[in-house]
């Protein structure tokens, strides 16, 4: 079971979202099975996005195995930035 979960909130018209997706994919490959991730398109899941307090895309949210939010960032992270955030969030 993964120790962390990452959610990428994106939108179809967001060019920065594709860059963030590529960064998330690279980090997920590097971290392996300690991290799982999914992507939520805010237009396809407006209730979930609103309940999560998403106001801009891209937004990355890292939660622990218990569902507690450990980190949130908007904008396009670099691979080192995202790896650092994941490493800091690991138990």
Write the layout of secondary structure elements.
Blueprint lengths: L3 E7 L4 H17 L3 E7 L4 H6 L7 E6 L4 E6 L4 H11 L2
Parallel strand pairs: 1-2
Antiparallel strand pairs: 1-3, 3-4
Helix pairs in contact: 1-3
What does this structure look like?
The mean pLDDT is 96. The chain is built from three helices and four strands; from the N terminus they run βαβαββα. It has helices at 15-31, 46-51, 79-89; strands at 4-10, 35-41, 59-64, 69-74. The protein has a four-stranded mixed beta sheet with strand order 2-1-3-4, with helices on one face. 37% of the residues lie in helices and 29% in strands. It has 91 residues and is an alpha+beta fold. It has one domain (9-89): Glutaredoxin (3-Layer(aba) Sandwich), CATH 3.40.30.
What are its keywords?
Thioredoxin_domain; four-stranded mixed β-sheet; single chain; Glutaredoxin; alpha+beta; globular; 91 residues
Number of helices: 3
**Main β-sheet, spatial strand arrangement:** 2-1-3-4
Number of domains: 1
The averaged pLDDT comes out at 96
Query: If you compute it from the alpha carbons, what radius of gyration comes out, rounded to the nearest whole angstrom?
Result: 12 Å
Which shape, going by the Cα principal axes? globular
Briefly note the CATH topology name: Glutaredoxin
Per DSSP E runs of 2 or more residues, the count of β-strands stands at: 4
Structural category is: alpha+beta
Beta-strand percent range: 25-35%
CATH superfamily: Glutaredoxin
- CATH architecture tag: 3-Layer(aba) Sandwich
What's the quaternary structure here?
single chain
| Main beta sheet | 4 strands, mixed
Order of helices and strands: EHEHEEH
First-last Cα distance = 13 Å
Roughly how much helix do the residues carry, as a percent range?
Answer: 25-40%
Outline the low-pLDDT stretches.
none
What is the class in the CATH system? Alpha Beta
């Amino acid at each position: 079971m993964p120790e962390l979960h990452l959610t990428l909130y994106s939108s179809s018209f967001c060019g920065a979202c594709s860059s963030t997706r590529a960064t998330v994919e690279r980090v997920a490959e590097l971290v392996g099975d300690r991290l799982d991730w999914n992507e939520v398109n805010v237009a396809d899941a407006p209730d979930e996005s609103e309940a999560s307090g998403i106001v801009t895309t891209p937004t990355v949210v890292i939660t622990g195995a218990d569902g507690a939010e450990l980190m949130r960032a908007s904008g396009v992270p670099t691979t080192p930035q995202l790896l650092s955030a994941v490493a800091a969030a690991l138990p």
